[in-house]
Amino acid sequence: MPYLSKIALNPRRRQAVSLLSSPHRLHAAILAGLAVQPVTERILWRMETNAPHRAEILVLTESRPSWQHLIDEAGWPGADGGHPRIADYTPLLERLALGREFTFRLTANPVQSVPHPAKPSEQQNARLKAHTEQPDSARRPRGFRVAHRTAAQQLDWLLTRAERHGFTIPPTPTPTPAPGLTADATHTPGPAVTITSRDILRFHKHRNGPRITLSTATFEGRLRVTDPTALRVALLQGIGPAKGYGQGLLTLAPATAEAAVTHG
């Protein structure tokens, strides 16, 4: 049974500062919230807010977690509003139906695979060198993941992957013209999605290890279900790479105000 959790951290505490500065450390702390170790289940998480006074983390797990260690070390133990929220995710999954619309939020790492990066990193150069030194180097090397840098590229990345994940993004609703006016026939509505934030994360997995760089984008908009099974898989397994570093968690909220499911 999947669970969606929301955990509040106190950015003024030393341990919270350490966790929030490194997706690698935060991922390890999240894994520590599961009783069955080593963890083999799929974990998705996302930084929901990271303000000077409060940071919130969304986490999707297959089993029921405990976040007491995070609250004790980096939150507000015993304070009103400091207790983590843990909700059964099954009701949302059961609401998925062909043609139904939801609003959504997704923070992802939009990338493409290329045979040879234009500006290879230190690690990519090492891979290329190792390939040329192999006896069978005539065989093409495995592709390299290269980040989409512009907002237009990142938006196109999402639009081209939507159908395989069981949804489409409908066009933005055209406003009804005022009485006596006619609609602008030349206006072509775009997809109902915007990029609300973009960031580049830089961190080290280990003290003397190579630096990891991730280009991220947060998408918010409206989607229409075209394949409930595929969308259910996307919700539980995430979209795109770098899931261990807080990327790929897709959350839904009802398109109608009276429904109860939220982004978290």
Describe the 3D structure.
The protein has 264 residues and is of the alpha+beta class. 23% of the residues lie in helices and 28% in strands. The chain is built from seven helices and eleven strands. Strands 5, 8, 9, 10 and 11 form a five-stranded antiparallel beta sheet that branches. A four-stranded antiparallel beta sheet has the order 2-3-1-4, covered by helices on one side. The protein has a two-stranded antiparallel ribbon with strand order 6-7. A hairpin with a 4-residue loop joins strand 2 and strand 3. The radius of gyration is 21 Å and the shape is globular. Residues 257-262 have low confidence and may be disordered.
Describe the structure concisely.
The chain is of the alpha+beta class. It has 7 helices and 11 strands. Strands 5, 8, 9, 10 and 11 form a 5-stranded antiparallel sheet that branches. It has a 4-stranded antiparallel sheet with strand order 2-3-1-4, with helices on one face. It has a two-stranded antiparallel sheet with strand order 6-7.
